[in-house]
Structure formats: structure tokens, C-alpha cells
Design goal:
heterodimer; A: about 525 residues; alpha+beta; DNA ligase i, domain 1; D-amino Acid Aminotransferase, Chain A, domain 1; OB fold (Dihydrolipoamide Acetyltransferase, E2P); seven-stranded mixed sheet; seven-stranded antiparallel sheet; 23 strands; about 35% helix; globular; B: about 325 residues; alpha/beta; Metallo-beta-lactamase, Chain A; Rossmann fold; 2 domains; six-stranded mixed sheet; 7 helices; 19 strands
Amino acid sequence: MQHFSQLVFTLAQSTKTNEKLDALSRYFATADEKDKPWVLALFSGRRPKRIVNSTLMKQWCMEVSGLPEWLFSECYHTVGDLGETIALLLPPPNTTTAPKPLHYWLDRFLQLEKASEAEKSAFIRNAWDQLQHTERFVFNKLITGGFRIGVSQSMIVNALARTYNIAPAIISHMISGNWDPQQTTLSELLNEEARNTDDSRPYPFFLAYALESPRGELGEPDEWQAEWKWDGIRGQLIRRNGQLFIWSRGEELITEKFPELTALLSFLPDGVAIDGEILTYDQENDRPLPFQALQTRIGRKNVTRKQLQEAPVAFLSYDLLEYEGEDIRALPLQDRRALLEKLVAAVHQPALKISPVVAYSDWPQLAALREQSRNNGSEGLMLKRRSSAYLVGRKRGDWWKWKIDPFTVDAVMIYAQKGHGRRSNLYTDYTFAVWNGDQLVPFAKAYSGLTDKEIAEVDNWVKRNSIEKFGPVRTVKPELVFEIAFEGIAASNRHKSGIALRFPRIHRWRKDKPVEEINTLDDLRQLLRV
Amino acid sequence: MEPVLTFTDKGIYCAAGDFYIDPWKPVPRAVITHAHSDHARPGNQHYLCTKDSVPVLQLRLGQDISVQGLAYGEQIYINGATVSFHPAGHMIGSAQVKVTVNGQTWVASGDYKTENDGISGAFEPVKCHVFITESTFGLPIYHWKPQSAMLGDIRSWIHENQQAGKNSVLVAYSLGKAQRLLYNLQHAVPKFLVHGAIFNAHEMLRSQGWPLPPVELITPQTPKEDFKNSLIIAPPSATGSSWMRRFLPYALGICSGWMQVRGNARRQNADAGFAISDHADWPGLLQTIKATGAEKVFATHGFSSVLARYLQENGLEAEEVKTAFGAEEDDTPVIAE
């Protein structure tokens, strides 16, 4: 565990990609063989199930440290991270036991999954008692999840590529899919032959960069295929050896959540992998439902009959990655598209659709079409080079997303709360309001969009202009005006304002605008009709 | 009975002696706990502080100020009040102020730390009826490692940087923290290079006979070669400035109690954060309050409401007081203490 804790601290402390990469490849070159697959699992979204929730962790820490709950909360709001707060509050360790490797603790988590609360409590208190401060912090994070140390999956891939001298795109593919860190060693994982036995293994997703406007560098319009940009769950639909698998972009196997799609098993041919978007779909009017409908399906394990009726999903195919058992990612897009069209037509099922190609003859015409994106429920356009291969990860050049401009409104900040991670102990999480008559109605929360300098300025202002304090939340004088941008808007009876926004964020600070002139709730209601 | 000290809009006031302690608006008589700018402000007619503080005060506020210095423990009578200074361990010359009127003793702590750092004086708790305490780090998450351990961490960090071919830049408050580090690290590196903000105060203190190591002022002419194998000390204001670029490649280490929380170090893009503070940590605050035997405690600048509530729940009469030393918890600066 010491070796891993050291890695976590080095990664968290470093601000440079190269240093992080060095630290990771050094780690993979020297770490305990049994720890390595676990580290890969932890940094690629394959962490073990949480054995206890945060409330229990907090309660046990209060018991061990003898602190009242209010004082624990004050500490938590200053630190902004539960695992770290607990590590800082525990008394110094007592027992001097030999340090244990990372895999020991993770194996114990798996063993304790079904244990009683008393057993778990004894285990965790005992662990706290034998771990040093930094290891305690890492141990707590292993339970509560989320290291927030700026390590992306692609960085892990690059580190492995460096250590094992294999191309990153191949590593990406090798470590994807279903594997168990308890049963697999890293060398097995990186052994192509052994890995071919996994029928579920998805291909790494190709991701697009944002495009401001199509300019000369894109070349001729006919070199490009345009499609609408849909806002659902990016996924990969795979059928191999008589089994069907659905992966999310986060490399989570989500097959069971979508019975409409699993039913495709008997219609799809064997040996195919399709990249696409899972959308809730109005089959009658042949258009996707708003994202809010899909939200009722996310995070549910068991889907009810009602949900299936109200929010049925379809798979909108973008690309074909495997056909007749062959990896065809290197073929040009136009050839893959031809095969995909043939395939979708042959399956002929309402749950499997193809993303339509948008016809256009020149860039101005496409720009005009983009303006109409909201009419068909999409959020802009995708541009894909007809001759391009299907690459790995976010790459510049062949795929672009050209989103429509977000909606914006001017609103005033009314509440502020301290942030987390590198924003701990700074007021960075704000609630905004618009006028409804002479009342201010809160309608959105936003956490991002300001520069560090602006955050410092707002933080300073909040501390001097608080009216009231409710636990961690401060009510501030309604004076600071911001332009809030968001992608979508829907009616909601769960919100006081009657509306719910999609991806609200701060667009800019309107120091020039007095609070009297901000938008009203009626202005927002108007947008509902768009 | 009249309270010995009251809290006014100009600062902590003693009516019997007609003087203020660390006033934030100009007054005729100011009793100063220590020379940091939020405690020793310009514009007062007359200053009273410790003998060790006098030259520092003159450096900061001007040679022409009217100032009188007292030895630690020496008593002075101001009208009806007896006043004396007692070591606070915060920085060179820092003191707690003890004021007795009609047998009632109040102590205003100023800023203090309980661990003896070797150069700032050894803190002594003072028996009193009422104790006015700072609470900059008044949360149980703040408990410092012993100085020896922190210095060990800093020495290994310097060593690692040398191995990696990087210069070491430590960020420390120019008055207080910088001298503490220089004094305690004098045998760790062959040479110290410092920013101008640190250099002036340092030279003055050396001329007063403080056992501080020699330092060199960094100028545009300082050869790059000199940065290797030396320790560079810079004030918080230098972080993120173009002044730092000359040290490339370098590792940045910030020395501040705020570094106890990882997010603070990460926010400032520090390569290392050393939670080394000149303020009392939570156990230090609680032990001191107990040792004073005070019946009543006023908590000022810092996590004052938290400390006051905790003391109340533990059976002590305690109150939060707003002061201009930082007003309240959130006004604490990110680096400067």
C-alpha cells in the first residue's frame, strides 16, 4: 500500500502530464505483480463495490476521534473531501503491524461485500489503527471512491505503452472489456492471444473535438459526412458467439438495463460491433425524446413496465467496427458506412436505427441546417471525414463536433457553497436566480466557467457579503450578475422554478449588468417552447 | 466590575489604561503584540512592544515612530493598568499582552504557537482570569507534525530535487516563517538565496545579533549556476509571478499551515506543501486555554465560532469576537499567515 500511496501522492501533487506519465510507468515497472492489475482497474473505472457508505465512515470516525457531529461537519466543509477529513481527524495509529500490499486490502473489500455491519466496522477501525496518515487517506479513498488526481484512462494507457513497449491504441483495446483484477495478471491482460477469448471485449471509442466553425482547413464539403449530434448515452453494441453485450463509453457493461436492445440478439448476425447512441425514442413520430426521459432509465437496474412504455430506447448506429468477426476499423468511413447501412436494413428492427446522413452541398448551407438542430432534438452536427479510419480516443483532424450555441440567460448569485478537491475551502459552487415579479427564484446551480482569478475574487466577495449561513451554504447579497449558459431546458415539477436545465455553467461574469436587468422566469418559460 | 479589556471598532481597548492592543485604526497609545502588518499598523502616536520587536517595527513603520520596548516579563504601569509582555513563540519579538486592573488579569494572545522553533522564543502560558485567544487553525484537522519531522521532510524534498536536477524554491512568509526556516535549515544546504522582501528584514535581524545564517539577495545578475545546490526562499506574493521563471527548472514547496489540506497545495500548483505554521494547532489551542486557567475565553481571528462553541460544550464560558485581524475563518489568507 505504501508504494501505491506514494504513487497517488506523486500524481496528485504533479501538475505536469509528463511527470505523471513518468511516475506511472515507473510504478508499473516496479510494483507488486498482484497490485498492478488492481491499479489499472482503479484508474479505469473498475473499482470494487463500496463496502460501506459515507455516513457509516463518518460515524465511525466520530466515535474513534470523540468529536461531535457539528465539528466533524465544519471540518468536512473546510477539507472538501470525506476520505481526507477522516484521515486528518483520526488519532495516530497504534499497532505496529507489517505494512500490507494494496491487493491485500482490495481482496478484503471483496470478501467483506456481504459481511455484517459489525464485521465491516471492526475491519475498518482495525485498518485505520495500523495505517499511517497517507495510507489512511488512500485507504479511505479506495472505499469512498474517486481519486481526482488528474489521471485519465489515456494517461494510464500511455504509461503502460511506455513500460511494455506496445502501441497505445493496442493497449487501449487490450485492457478494455471484462476482466477481473483478482484473477488476471497484467501480462495476461496484455497478451493478445489470451485476451481473444473474451467475447464481450469492446473497442476503444473514437471521440471528436469541438469545432468553432468549418473553415478552409476542412477542405471540400464533399470530403465530409455530416450527421446530427445526438444527446444520449454513447454505447457499443456487440454480438459474438451468440451473446449480446452493450458497453457505455465509460466502459461499463450496461446490457441488462436495456431489454429493448437485448432483444436484438436474435436479429443481429454474429461477429459485429456497432458504435452508436442509446436514446429514448418516440417511434410513432420517429424522433428522439428529450434527454430528461432517458434520465429515468439511467441508474436503474430493474426497468419497470411503465418506464419501458414511457421511455423506450433505441440504438442509433453511427459506425461499424467489427463485421463478420473482423476488426474493420482501418477501413475508410465510407466503406464502413455502406456495410452499416446494409446491416441495419437487414436487421430491420425499430430498436436499431441508423444515424441519418445530413445532405448539404456547401458550408453555408450546412451552417444554416445546424441552426435548426433543436427542431429535431439534436444538439448540433457531427462532421466525419469520409476517408477516415476509426481511431482511438480523442483525436484532432477526422471527427469534429459542431454544436449549436448554448442558451444563455443573465442571473444573479444568491447562494454560495465551498467546493471540493483543489477548490476546497473556496466558495466555488453557486446557486443563481432570476426575477419572478419582485421575487428572486433560484433556477440553476453551476460550478464551473470562471477562471481561478475570478473564483478568488468571488470567494473574497462572498466572505464579505454573506447575509445568512445555513450549514455550509451562505446566502449572499443578490448583487453579482453572471451569464449562465445551458444546453437544454425542460419543465420540471421537482424544481421550485418549474424548470430544469441541462449542463448549466457560468459563461461570463457580467460586471456591467445591474441586478435589476437580469432575466425573468417568464423569459425562461419562453425558451421551453423553442 | 468593569471589564479590563473591551472590543471596540478601533481594536481591543483598555479603559483603565486608555490604550489599545493591536489597533486597526490610529490611536494615541498602541500596545503591539508583534510586527506583522495586520497587528502593527501605521499612524499611531505612540507604540509599546517588546525590545526585540522595536527594530522590526521601525523597519516596517519607519525609524521616526515613537516606540518604547520592554523586556519579556517587565512590568509597566499605564494609568491604572499593569502591563507586561510574555513570549508567544510566533516570530522574533512576538508577545502575549498581560493586563491587570484591580486584581483582574486579562491576557490577549496576539498570534502564538506552542512549539519552540528555536528562534521565535519559547511560548509560555500565562495564568489569567480572561484569555483572548487567536484561532487561525481552530479546527481539529489542524495538528502539526513536530518541527523536527517537518524539517526532515523538507530536507528529503531538497535532496530529491537535486537528484532530479531541479532547483528548490520554498515559499514562506517573509517575516517570521522565513527566519524560522533559515535558522533551522542552516546546515542543510551550502547557500541560501532570497527574494528582496526577505532580504531586508533578514539583514536587519542579523545586524541585531540574531543567530541567522548569511543569505544572498537574488538579483537579475545572479548567475543561474548559483541556483543549483542552494535553497531559494521567496515570499507568497512571488508565486505565479514572472520573477520565478529564472529558477527553471525548479520545484515549488509552500510552507504554511494551510498546506495541511491537500487542495490548497494543489490549487497553487505547488510541487509540495509543508504544513509548518507559526500558529497554534488545535491541540495547542486547547492545551493553552487549559493552562491559562481562564474562566472566560474570547476567540478571535480564525475559526473563532467553532472554537468558542467547542469550549462552551466543554463547560467553559466562551465567546466569539470579530476583529480586523482576519475578521473570521474565511478571511484567512491562503498562504500568508
